[in-house]
Amino acid sequence: xxxxxxxxxxxxxxxxxxxxxxxxxxxxxxxxxxxxxxxxxxxxxxxxxxxxxxxxxxxxxxxxxxxxxxxxxxxxxxxxxxxxxxxxxxxxxxxxxxxxxxxxxxxxxxxxxxxxxxxxxxxxxxxxxxxxxxxxxxxxxxxxxxxxxxxxxxxxxxxxxxxxxxxxxxxxxxxxxxxxxxxxxxxxxxxxxxxxxxxxxxxxxxxxxxxxxxxxxxxxxxxxxxxxxxxxxxxxxxxxxxxxxxxxxxxxxxxxxxxxxxxxxxxxxxxxxxxxxxxxxxxxxxxxxxxxxxxxxxxxxxxxxxxxxxxxxxxxxxxxxxxxxxxxxxxxxxxxxxxxxxxxxxxxxxxxxxxxxxxxxxxxxxxxxxxxxxxxxxxxxxxxxxxxxxxxxxxxxxxxxxxxxxxxxxxxxxxxxxxxxxxxxxxxxxxxxxxxxxxxxxxxxxxxxxxxxxxxxxxxxxxxxxxxxxxxxxxxxxxxxxxxxxxxxxxxxxxxxxxxxxxxxxxxxxxxxxxxxxxxxxxxxxxxxxxxxxxxxxxxxxxxxxxxxxxxxxxxxxxxxxxxxxxxxxxxxxxxxxxxxxxxxxxxxxxxxxxxx
Amino acid sequence: xxxxxxxxxxxxxxxxxxxxxxxxxxxxxxxxxxxxxxxxxxxxxxxxxxxxxxxxxxxxxxxxxxxxxxxxxxxxxxxxxxxxxxxxxxxxxxxxxxxxxxxxxxxxxxxxxxxxxx
Lengths: 597, 118
Prior knowledge:
The complex is a heterodimer. Chain A is an alpha/beta fold. Helices cover 40% and strands 14% of the residues of chain A. Chain A has 25 helices and 17 strands. In chain A, the strands form five sheets. In chain A, strands 10-9-13-11-12 form a five-stranded mixed sheet. Chain A is globular, with a radius of gyration of 27 Å. Chain B has a four-stranded mixed sheet, covered by helices on one side. In chain B, a hairpin with a 5-residue loop joins strand 3 (78-82) and strand 4 (88-90). In chain B, 41% of the residues lie in helices and 17% in strands. Chain B has four helices and four strands. The relative contact order of chain B is 0.16. Chain B has a single domain, classed as Glutaredoxin (3-Layer(aba) Sandwich). Chain B is globular, with a radius of gyration of 16 Å. The longest helix of chain B is centred in the N-terminal third of the chain and has 18 residues, at 4-21.
């Protein structure tokens, strides 16, 4: 008798559900009970495992045995032979050498990772990022070699185009088309750039990708260079990421010493090398034309497009510029194939998206989910819901350029078009969950404060317009809002969207406009009733001492302006005229005797 | 003249044998998270504990660093992977937990359930 504990994973992707995977779960439970295995065998559900054509898929761990085309009739055999006797059933096993599912072998049984699908982060967390051997052992650089050996540059581009991959930096431009446009340019030399100037507050997708698997970026860029006919690649990365810089530098050096970068790569006619340029941390340098100016040694400011960098880019030469996450998809597309890649995601958005899940959610973290996963699944299934039993209020996607979506949009599937229709954007992958304790006006003010501070100042709408909007917002949160403020914000926001020079300016009003659209009543309460329902705007909150007060005196000693008085062991009193609403008494009190009203 | 594809496959075979030479086939493989976020949470100390144990004669263990798997709120994380068993993922590992993982799990095969991420 075999006493191993097993964990069975049933694919719960749409395709497998359609093929009857949920019915399998019922039969499985029944069989487990019959054999008295319910203690030793647990069942978990996963998101799409990317093997739809062979579904329903059932995975048995340990051993990572993948069974495909499983029917109800197969279940008794799986239970008896595999789970009881320990013998996998050869006729049902499917051999998969996909790149993406390696991560799943280590982490697949944990609930947090179950709904995820790791394509770009496939090696993050399972290999030593500073070892080229580790990367090579997982079919590293095979995609590059395959491209050079078996494919013409045109075929590589055709494969990327067919995959349906779109730019992961935020705008979602079809990657294959960008490659094609750059390849079609006659001028040489051409350049390839990796945009690793990650600047959204709270976002760390690119940092983690580079720190966890730098060779993927190197390989992706080399493939890009081969496809468009470039010999030089540049990684533009912010200086605030020292470890990421160290690891990408190490990866480039190791690749060079293995003949995977440099002259005549792997004995072929193709030569390509990569340099690193450090950014000084200006948000605007994530915008491609500003980034190019920064590399050229000029001040990082955008310029009008067209011409696009594909035609007139770095040093006025044709330049292919993609985001870190976009590059990381390339080796997978070439090895697992565009046809496979297309099976993941939705009609218009293929593949997966990485998000930095943060804010009021139990499991904060870095996640990668197939396009088409709903916001609800991300927040509740992966993120584990809202902590401390608080109510969900809003989710902010797309960083400072995105919008805040309220509860009724929770079933929106993640893809470029659906998010745009809902009034937000995909963006580069920031996702901040907001609960009832946050004030939406204050959230909008926070994001606008960031974009205003980071405005490069070149165009008037962004430089002056965001400044004026911020003034109005600040006034509202201080309880000095005036009738007409909301309309002014809408008018200014609309103008900035239409007239700012670059994408960052054009999207800067988004957090404000989306909160006005979805939470207009909060703005109105601030302006007309001088009330903040979340009790987050300091100026609109009054503190009161309730009858829970035991007279310990802690608040009296903590108050910096001596607004609290009272004798020991008797209920204290707070002088509203002296109170500066700093909240010290509230945080000091151990008896919950201070109330916000 | 081998093709680039043949060359890369040869490189892979060499890489695999080098990794095996470093002890990859040991009974237990231990991965310590060493991304910026993990380090900020204290993983350098954790790594040191494991390194010290190995240098002081803990055998049959393959120790490696790894990037961030994405479990921000449970970092530092450590995985113990054993052939034929489900990988064990530990969260919030500090120096003390690392020492206990060495004593109880690596030496005695006990999975310390209360620290396991599921």
